[in-house]
Design goal:
Two copies of one chain form a homodimer.
Chain A: H1 7-19, H2 30-47, E1 53-57, H3 60-75, H4 79-82, E2 90-95, H5 101-109, E3 116-119, H6 129-141, E4 145-152, H7 164-174, E5 177-181, H8 192-197, H9 199-204, E6 207-211, E7 223-227, H10 232-237, H11 272-306, E8 310-312, E9 323-325, H12 337-357, E10 364-368, E11 373-378, H13 388-419
Chain lengths: 422, 422
């Protein structure tokens, strides 16, 4: 996921390291603060949000933390001063295939992982709205408060987009904060068709988070948390510490003073590397790169489907391509337990061979969901700036690695067989 | 505070940006993970801790967050799964002069800022232990749980070190987690005398946090949270997400897999810039730099004391030097309200002039504590690698700026006076 590379964003990062500006006051990072404002405005425009507030933070888990604290504050503003002890138990809803940041956040916020309610997914790995509504009703019946629904734009493993519009409607119906975790899938916002398709959902949603360091080729870390609720971050997070900023100290418009919106004090400026990249490529240029990456992801899926030793698991909706490798000697076997055991096993062995070989590095894993129980499979994530030849190279490597590992296995198998006494 | 600079740490940061490794698995950042382990071990040795656990994180506020969540988990391990709703109200104790991260943390954890109990400070800006004990008793009488005491090594404004040993004893007596916020003052740990002086306190304390990006000349951000409680971070923060790491996936010793200790998923490696700096300078070299900076801080205090237009507020214990500027025309005036109003006013105007002039940049602020109520004063923080001449230059600038601003003010005053009709 971090395999993308751009000379612009890298130089931007060097400049930031050299200047070492901190965002806790405007004075210490004036230009970068203005750049943050510009990027925040651009994103808000993409979502068609007229009012908004945002903060940059070092990674998606912290953006999820902001989503959780902001949604809780929105429902119970006194939580800032009084804490949660006199409040009812809160529940957060998220797809069973969403990433771990809701659980991590629940541990930090004192909500508890048991109160993160996971929602079933369909055959494409998307949250099932009817299951969501069922679970909300159960939560309300218990006297709990449904605090937030976390939907995912681009799930980690399948790259699925949850049905945002239906989720937004449910949020409206039950007065629940809708956060869209677009940390991995946010690059899709650069595509007009995608924005058009989800405009109703965006109009109804409350917040979104995006990692620029995942798909958008920016060195770690650069994450934005954006909410439609104006000024809420200042209200929720400020402490007005005299040593950081006092209204009278400011030699400029006090509204430029955004440090106290953050839960951080000194905050590394992560904006220049992204701003420079965007500025250099233009929105149009970025869009083209993203489209090309999506084409590459479909192209890899095509190669997988055409080869008898591979099987595509889900038609890719985004940049992750999930597939099994079937070694030659079992490829026509019945798909029984023994078959899947071998598939599971060879995937692991191929990864070891891949690391030794040193040409490529992709992830593999098992996946359990209410819909599927998958043994080990590969799930490369296509990054920006790759060519068809790169995809061909990756696939060729996988074929060769598969053959090498299968041969070794066959040899071992025949040795074991020949030792057996008749 | 971020004014320090080292070519080693800067190059280290460039390398990190270029490699763009993430710490969520050992596989994606093997060498940097080993470097983290080495630095953690070195720090633990300085504190004389035989057992320990640690995590790097992007800044001091997040380290404070770890202190809060870890101490809560230590008292109530079920909080991870069940949240705080069935637990009593928790209280956290911190000096009235500590930085804002306890408040920020209390908002995030659902403790509430009202439950951060501030403790009075003495004439040197240090927490008063008797006041701490009083407040703990009140907390217990209310049926609240005293969860954590946050003491500060090097307060933001006065650079004071809280009386760690007395605080540690109180923590022992009432079974409270003792966290030392050494984000600013941690550089003192490199001094043998300092370590010797506080060894009993360290032996009794539970955790400590240090920003390498403050005094130690490392570009933002590089923070370590270190606790004496082995394995607690894994227990407190892990979610065991399959997509991040599965025991069977690991091609190496599973104990090298430290990503899940963190509340982050993708985590920027902040270690190389610091490791390289430390390696290049050696512990001895770092110690010498810190000693020299402490000398410079005393030297600036001496210059301040010897000049009639300046007044030192507190004899510096660390690297911050706090002082007033008295304009010439009031320097022998009685120290009444009018006097302090002018002192307050000229400080602000001098800062404006300083920014326009562009040669130096230091902070100023007011400070209210139970002991003092100070109008605006300057509080430069001395960074590593500065020479006597740099201190002389800063002081000369302040004198000149003071004179320029005073003259302007006098001119304005005489114009106003001459306009008044007799």
């Amino acid at each position: 996921m971090f395999g993308g590379f751009s000379e612009y964003s890298l130089i931007g990062d060097y400049v930031q390291s050299t200047l070492n500006s901190s965002a806790f006051t405007f004075e210490s990072a004036p230009i970068f603060t203005l750049m943050e404002k510009e990027v925040g405005k651009k994103y808000a425009k993409m979502l068609n949000w007229e009012t908004y507030d945002f903060i940059f933070c070092p990674g998606g888990t912290f953006a999820s933390l902001y989503a959780l604290t902001t949604s809780r504050f929105h429902k119970f503003p006194n939580v800032k001063f009084e804490g949660v002890n006199n409040l009812p138990q809160m529940n957060v809803f998220t797809s069973e295939l969403s990433q771990c940041s809701m659980e991590k956040g629940a541990m930090v916020l004192g909500i508890g992982t048991n109160n993160i309610i996971t929602i079933k997914t369909d055959e494409r790995g998307r949250m099932i709205p009817s299951n969501l509504e069922e679970k909300i009703k159960i939560c309300i019946d218990k006297g709990h408060v449904p605090m937030m629904i976390n939907s995912t734009m681009g799930t980690t493993v399948f790259g699925a987009n949850d049905p945002f519009e239906e989720i937004s409607s449910i949020c409206e119906k039950y007065d629940i904060w809708h956060h869209i975790d677009a940390t991995y899938g946010g690059a899709q916002l650069f595509l007009e068709d995608f924005r058009k398709q989800h405009e109703n959902a965006f109009a109804l949603s409350d917040s979104i988070s995006m990692d620029q360091h995942k798909v958008l080729s920016v060195p770690q870390q650069s994450t934005i948390f954006l909410t439609k609720h104006e000024d809420i971050l200042e209200e929720c997070n400020s402490t007005h510490s005299g040593y950081m900023s006092m209204q009278e100290k400011v030699l400029y418009d006090f509204h430029l003073e955004i440090g106290d919106k953050s839960i951080q004090c000194s905050r590394h400026m992560d904006i220049f590397k992204f701003w420079l990249y965007w500025k250099a490529l233009s929105t149009e240029g970025l869009k083209d790169l993203i489209k090309k990456a999506l084409d590459n992801s479909k192209y890899l899926a095509k190669l997988v489907k055409e080869h008898k030793n591979f099987e595509l698991i889900i038609e890719p909706e985004y940049l992750t391509v999930c597939f099994f490798y079937f070694p030659e000697h079992i490829v026509y076997n019945p798909r029984d337990e023994a078959f899947w055991k071998e598939v599971d096993d060879i995937c692991k062995k191929m990864k070891i061979e891949m690391i030794k070989r040193g040409n490529t590095m992709i992830s593999y894993q098992k996946q359990l969901s209410s819909h599927k129980k998958l043994v080990n499979f590969f799930r490369p994530s296509i990054t920006l700036g790759k060519e068809r030849e790169d995809i061909d190279f990756l696939f060729k490597e996988l074929i060769e690695i598969g053959e090498i590992v299968s041969e070794k296995e066959n040899l071992m198998r025949s040795i074991r067989t020949s030792i057996i006494l008749a």
